[in-house]
Amino acid sequence: MLFPNGQFSSCIKPLLNLKPPQISTQTGNPYDQSHYNYSEKMSSLILKRSCNNKSLHNSFLRINLFTRTLFSLSEPHFHDSPIPVNNQQVPASSYAFLENKNNGFCSYFHGNWKVPIPYDCNFVRFLSSQAAVEASTSDGLTVEGIIANKWVIHDENESDWRSHAAAIAQSIHLIKKRLRWKKLIPRLKILSEELDKPDLWDDPARAGKISREHGSIMGKMKEVNAFEQELIEHIDMIKLAREENDSELESESLKALLALRRNIKEKELEALLAGEQDSCSCFIEVQAGAGGTESMDWASMVMQMYKRWAENRGFGVTVVDEMPGDIAGIKRATIKVDGEFAFGYAKAEVGAHRLVRISPLDSNKRRHTSFASVAVIPILGEGFSHVQINESDLRIERFRAGGAGGQHVNTTESAVRITHIPTGVTASCQNERSQNQNKMSAMAVLQSRLDQLEIERQARINAEHTQSLTDINFGSQIRSYVLHPYRMVKDHRTDYEVSDPDSVLQGDLDGFILSFLSASLDKNEEDDGI
Amino acid sequence: MKSSCFTRASLSSILQPVFSPRLKPSRPIICSAVPPKPQTALYLRPPAFRSTLSELRKWYAWAKNQASSVGSTFLDLDNGPDSTLLHRELKWLVEDALERPDMLSPLNSGDNYDDATPVSMRACLDDLYKLWKQRIEERRPFQYVVGCEHWRDLILSVEEGVLIPRPETEIIVDLVDDAVKENEELRNGLWADLGTGSGALAIGVARILGLGCGRVVATDLSPVAVAVASYNVQRYNLQDRVSVKLGSWFDPLKDVEGELSGLVSNPPYIPSEDINGLQAEVSKHEPRLALDGGANGMDDLINLCNGAASMLKPGGFFALETNGETQSKFLVDYMDTKMKGSFYGTNIASDFAGIQRFVTGYRA
C-alpha cells in the first residue's frame, strides 16, 4: 500500500475493465440545457479520442481501487493509516492544519479520501457496497490533486483555466469543511439505517425529522459532488479542446469554468449557514450591564444597531419587550427579527459588547466603560419539534399589577409577564395593544427560550454538536467599541477590526458576522476536516 | 402647511364627549328613534390629509414633550397614566393616524427623507394637536381619542357613551372556550351577552363558538352602545350569528326563557360612592351607566344571578365579571345558599393580576 498515487494507479490498470460505465454523463446542472449539449459534445469528443488512444480511455474511466480497497479493508482504522504522500505541499491558508501535521507523513485520506458520487437515491447502499468512484480527469487529475498542485490563483478576469480550477477546488474544499463533510457520511449512514427500519413511522414526528435530515444531507452532498464533477468535466474539455485545436470550444469551456467559479464562491457563504437552526427567524435580546444610566444608554445604542442591521438586510423587525431606563436608554429589550437566516447571522453576536467613550451623560466628561449583553434565540419553525408547555406550569402576571383593575382602571397598559415555573424562564411583552396579544407574543418568546434550552441540553448530551451556541458564553466579552481616546471597533474572537465606529453603530455588522462565522467553522479542527 | 379638515359636524362629534344621563337599568326602554350613527375609528378613515414631514415632526416633538412633562403626576394623583405609557400611546396614535408611520421612526430621523416630503394622514394636523391635547389636558381616554380598542385579537370601535372593554374581560372568552371544549353541546346553543357595550364579549364568544354553530344575543340599555356593538358585529361579519338588542338585561330575551346554553356579562359593579375617586379617564369620560353597580356594587350582579337561574337551560354555563374577591365570594355564597339547588360547579377565577375577578358555574 505504500505507493504514491501515480505508481499505484498504474499498477491497477489491468483491472480496469471492471469499471462501471456511467462516470461522466449525468453531471452538471440539470436546469442548464446548454450544459447537456456541452456534455454531449464532450462525450463524443472523448469517445472519438478514446478510440485512438486506449490508455487515455483506461485512465479516464479508472476506478479508484485504492480507495475502494481501503474502504472495505480498513474502514475502522483509516484515520491512523500512515501513508506517505507525494509532493505534499498544501497551498491555501485554510489548509494550515495539514501543513502542520504533515512532515512528510500524512493520512492519505485527509488529502484524497473520496466520497462516491451519489446519483441514485440508494446512496448509502452504494457507499457501503464500496463502489467508490472518484471524480478525476482523463489524465487522473482530482480535485485534491488540483489543490496539491498549488496553481497560482489570479483575479477572475485573468483567462487562466488553472487559476479558475484552483479557485474552484479551494472553494469545494472550504465548503466541505464548513459542512463538516467527514461527519456527514457516517451521519447519513445512521440515518439511512433508521429509514430502513420497518417501525420507523410508528413515531411520525421522529420519522419526519429523520427523513428531513437525511434529505438535507443528501442534498448537500449531491450538490458538492456535482460541483466536483463539473469542475473535472470542464478541465477535460479544455484539455481536449487544446489537443483538437478547437479554440471556440476552449473559450466556451473557460467561460463555463469562470461561471462555476463565481457560482461556487456564493455557495461558500451559504455553507456558513448550514446549521440546523440557521435559517430560522430569531429574537435578539439586549440587556444593560452594571453601571446604571451609562450602560442603559449603551444598551439602547446596541439595540438600535441591530434594528438597523436587520432592516438593512431586509428582515422584519418588531419590538417585543422594552424596559426603559430610569433616566435614559433601556434596561432590557427584545426584538423579533423575521427573515430567512436571521438566526444564522445574528447568532454571531451573542456575548458582551463593551463601549469606551467620554460619556455625554457625565458632566465631568470622564471616560466610561459600559457593557451590554446580547442573547439570540432561534424561533423554530413548524418543521422542528417544540418543548411542550403545560398551562399549569405557567405563572401569568400583569406586568404592573396594582390597583383594583377591571372597570376601575382604564389603561392601555396591558403588559404580560409569563414565568415557566419548572425552569424559571420568563418572558414578557408590553408592546402590543391588547393583553391577549401581549400574552401571545410573550408565549412565543417563552416557547423559543425553552426550545433553545432543550437544544442546548441535547447538544451537551450529543458530543457531535460541540460546536454549537453553548460554546459562546452569554457573558464573555466578544467586541469592543472604542470612541475615545482612539476610534475603533474590534472583535476579540477574530481580531477583525474597523476604524469607523459610527458605521458599525449604524448597523454595518456583516464584516464582523461573516468573519466570525468563517473563523468558527474554518478553524483548525482536524477532526472536522475533509 | 396645507391641510383640509373633516366637516365640522363629524369633527365635533369626535372631539366632544357625550354624556348620557344615567338610566335605571330596571326600567325597560323602548326606543323607536333613528339609532345613532357610530363614528369611524381613526385608523379606518381614508388618508385624505396632507402635510409635510417637517410639520409632522414638529407636532411629534411637541406631543412627546407633552407626554414627558406629565411624569408621574397623573399616576400619583389618581393612578392615571405616566410618561412611559403616554409615549407608547403616542406611538400608537402615529400608527393609526399616518399612512406610513415609519416616517417618524427614529431610523428615519436622519437624511432618508427631507423636510418637504409629503405625508398622508387620516386626520389633519390641527386635529392631531387637538386630539393629543385632549389626551393630556382633559385626560380623554386614549381609546376614545383614536376611536378603537385592541382587545384580544379584535379591534373594536369605541366612542363616548360606550365602556372601553378592559383587558381583564378578555379572560371571560377563555373561560367560555374552556367550557365549550369540555361540553361540545354548549357550542351549538344560544348564548347571551348582557350589557354588551362595544359588543366585545358577544363577538369574542361568537368566534369561540365557531362558524355554523351557536348564536349570541347581545343586549344593552344604551342606544349608543347598541349602535356601536351592531357596527362592530358587522365589521367582523358576524351579523348572522350575533344579534344586538336594545333593552335592560333579560328584557329582550323573554321569548327564550330557559333556553340559553350560556350567559356572559361584565355588568356595572363599582360601588356608587367609589366612582368619583376613579382615575379621570374613567370618572370623567366613561358612561356611569356601565360602571355604577349601586351602593355595594352588587345590584346588577344579583339581578343577573337571579335571571340566570330562569334563563339558562339545565347544564347551561355562565361567567360573570366582578369587582374582585369580596364580590366574587359574596356571589358564590349567594348562589350556594340563597339559590341553593339552582346552580352547580360554581367557581372563582382570577385575572392576570391575581384578583379573584370571575364567577363561573352551571345551571343545575
Per-chain topology:
The complex is a heterodimer of chains A (530) and B (364).
Chain A: H1 5-11, H2 33-52, H3 54-60, H4 65-74, E1 82-84, H5 96-102, E2 105-107, H6 108-112, H7 123-128, H8 143-148, H9 161-178, H10 181-196, H11 204-243, H12 247-272, E3 281-288, H13 292-312, E4 316-324, E5 330-338, H14 342-346, E6 351-358, E7 367-379, E8 394-398, E9 416-420, E10 425-429, H15 435-461, E11 477-482, E12 488-491, E13 497-498, H16 501-505, H17 510-522
Helix pairs in contact in A: 2-3, 2-11, 9-11, 9-12, 10-11, 11-12
Chain B: H1 8-15, E1 49-52, H2 53-70, H3 73-78, H4 83-97, E2 118-121, H5 125-138, H6 142-146, E3 148-151, E4 154-157, H7 170-182, E5 190-194, H8 200-209, E6 215-220, H9 223-235, E7 242-246, E8 260-265, H10 280-283, H11 299-311, E9 312-321, H12 325-338, E10 343-350, E11 356-363
Parallel strand pairs in B: 5-6, 5-8, 6-7, 8-9
Antiparallel strand pairs in B: 1-2, 3-4, 9-11, 10-11
Helix pairs in contact in B: 2-4, 2-5, 7-8
Q: What fold name goes in the CATH topology slot of the largest domain in chain B?
A: Rossmann fold
The total domain count of chain A is 2
Query: Between the first and last Cα atoms of chain B, what is the distance in angstroms?
Result: 67 Å
Cα radius of gyration of chain A in angstroms: 28 Å
> Major sheet of chain B: size, sense and barrel closure?
7 strands, mixed
Order of helices and strands of chain A: HHHHEHEHHHHHHHEHEEHEEEEEHEEEHH
